[in-house]
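stage 2 :: seqdesign
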C-alpha cells in the first residue's frame, strides 16, 4: 500500500478577536506522499503558519481530519500528539531557537538523547549531519560564534536528527539574505532527499518554492 505521510481533509480553523470571527482555514485538503517535498506559499496572513501548526499538532482548535503516517490524530489525547511529534516530525523555524550555551554538535545530539539514543551514536549521527551541511569544522562552536546561515544549518541538522518521516518548516530561510537563503534551502532540500523524509515548507519566495517537488497555494482559506 502506498501510505501517505500526510492526509488532511476539510481542515478548518477560525479565530475570534474582539467579537469578530476570522476563518483562516476553510476546508483544507492536502496529501503528501513519503519522500515528497512540498512548498506552501500564500500571501502574508493567509494562514501558512496556522496550517503548519495543524500538521505539527502544535495547537488545538482545528476541525477536520489530520492523518499522519496513516494515523488519525484528531481524537488523540495530548500524549498521543507528543508521541507523534517525537517519533515522526522534525521542525525548522525562521529563527533557529538553538540552545545558546551548547555547541552545534550538542544542539543536534540533544533531541536524540531525549528520544533514547545513546550518547556515542547520537554524536556520530550529529557529526555526519553537520558535515553533510558543510559544518565539519564548526562542530564545537556555540550559536553566537556561527553566522546566520550556519546557525540555520544547525537547525536543519537538529530537525533531521531523529530521522523524521516529515519535516515541517516555517520560512526556514526567511531571516537570511537572498543568496544565503538559496544556498541553505538547496542544502536543506538535498539533505531531506538523502534522508528519504517528506517535507512541507512554507515560504514567501516563489523562486525557492519552484525548487521543490510541488507547490500548493493558500488563498482565502483554501489550498490549490
Ligand atoms: N492565536 C491567534 N489569535 C487570533 N488570530 C490569529 C492567531 N493566530 C493567527 N491568527 C490570524 O490568522 C491569520 C493567519 O495567520 P498565519 O500566521 O497563519 O499567516 P501566515 O500566512 O503564516 O503569515 P506570514 O506569512 O505573515 O507569517 C492572520 O490573520 C492572523 O492574524
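stage 2 :: out
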Amino acid at each position: 500500500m502506498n501510505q501517505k505521510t500526510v492526509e488532511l481533509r476539510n481542515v478548518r480553523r477560525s479565530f475570534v478577536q474582539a467579537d469578530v470571527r476570522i476563518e483562516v482555514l476553510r476546508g483544507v485538503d492536502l496529501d503528501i506522499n513519503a519522500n515528497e517535498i512540498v512548498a506552501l506559499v500564500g500571501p502574508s496572513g493567509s494562514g501558512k503558519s496556522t496550517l503548519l501548526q495543524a500538521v505539527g499538532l502544535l495547537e488545538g482548535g482545528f476541525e477536520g481530519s489530520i492523518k499522519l503516517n496513516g494515523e488519525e490524530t484528531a481524537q488523540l489525547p495530548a500524549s498521543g500528539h507528543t508521541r507523534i511529534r517525537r517519533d515522526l516530525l522534525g521542525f525548522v523555524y525562521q529563527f533557529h531557537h538553538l540552545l545558546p550555551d551548547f555547541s552545534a554538535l550538542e544542539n543536534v545530539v540533544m533531541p536524540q538523547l531525549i528520544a533514547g539514543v545513546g550518547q556515542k551514536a547520537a554524536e556520530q549521527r550529529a557529526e555526519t549531519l553537520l558535515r553533510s551541511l558543510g559544518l565539519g569544522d564548526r562542530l564545537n562552536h556555540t550559536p553566537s560564534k556561527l553566522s546566520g546561515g550556519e546557525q540555520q544549518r544547525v537547525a536543519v541538522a537538529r530537525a533531521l536528527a531523529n530521522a523524521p518521516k516529515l519535516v515541517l518548516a516555517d520560512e526556514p530561510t526567511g531571516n537570511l539574505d537572498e543568496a544565503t537563503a538559496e544556498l541553505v534551502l538547496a542544502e536543506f532540500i538535498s539533505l531531506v532527499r538523502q534522508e528519504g523524509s517528506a517535507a512541507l515548507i512554507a515560504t514567501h519566495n516563489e523562486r525557492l518554492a519552484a525548487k521543490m517537488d510541488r507547490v500548493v497555494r493558500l488563498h482565502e482559506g483554501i489550498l490549490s
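stage 3 :: structure notes
- The longest helix spans residues 178-195.
- Residues 1 and 70 are 11 Å apart (CA to CA).
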